[in-house]
């Protein structure tokens, strides 16, 4: 179930990133930047989890907070990407509306 939900999130985000990146720095550059920040986020999350676990916080509580953080971050990224995609689509199809 987690893999399906992750795929439903990652695939559209990657497609949008490649489409937008193709117009600016190139698809490959955009994917490379994305991979860098994904790895940075994983390292930070691992470090934060190690600190929280070292303090002695219950792992279940830690995972609940992590899940809430991911949901909020997903909502923020979805809103930002939706706005970018709509503006790109409107610019691409401007002649049809005029």
Walk me through the topology.
Blueprint: H1 2-23, H2 27-55, H3 59-92, H4 94-97
Helix pairs in contact: 1-2, 1-3
Tell me, rounded to a whole number, the average pLDDT. Answer: 79
| Portion in beta strands | under 5%
Shape: elongated
Rounded radius of gyration (Å):
18 Å
Note the quaternary state here.
single chain
Domains counted in the coordinates: how many? 1
Helix tally equals 4
Describe the largest sheet: none
> Termini, distance in Å?
45 Å
How does the helix and strand content classify structurally?
mainly alpha
Helix content: over 70%
N-to-C SSE series?
A: HHHH
Low-confidence parts, pLDDT < 50 over ≥5 residues? none
Beta strand count:
0
Describe the structure.
The protein is mainly α. The chain has one domain (2-97). The chain contains four helices and no strands. The termini are far apart. 1% of the residues are buried.
Produce a short descriptive summary:
This protein has 98 residues and is mostly helical. Helix content is 91%, strand content 0%. The protein has one domain.
């Amino acid at each position: 179930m987690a893999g399906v939900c992750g795929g439903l999130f990652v695939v559209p985000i990657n497609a949008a990133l490649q489409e937008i990146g193709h117009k600016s720095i190139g698809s490959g550059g955009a994917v490379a930047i994305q991979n860098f920040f994904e790895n940075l986020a994983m390292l930070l999350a691992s470090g934060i989890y190690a600190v929280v676990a070292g303090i002695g916080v219950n792992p279940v509580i830690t995972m609940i907070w992590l899940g809430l953080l991911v949901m909020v971050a997903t909502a923020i990224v979805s809103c930002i990407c939706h706005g970018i995609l709509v503006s790109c689509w409107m610019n691409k199809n401007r002649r049809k509306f005029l």
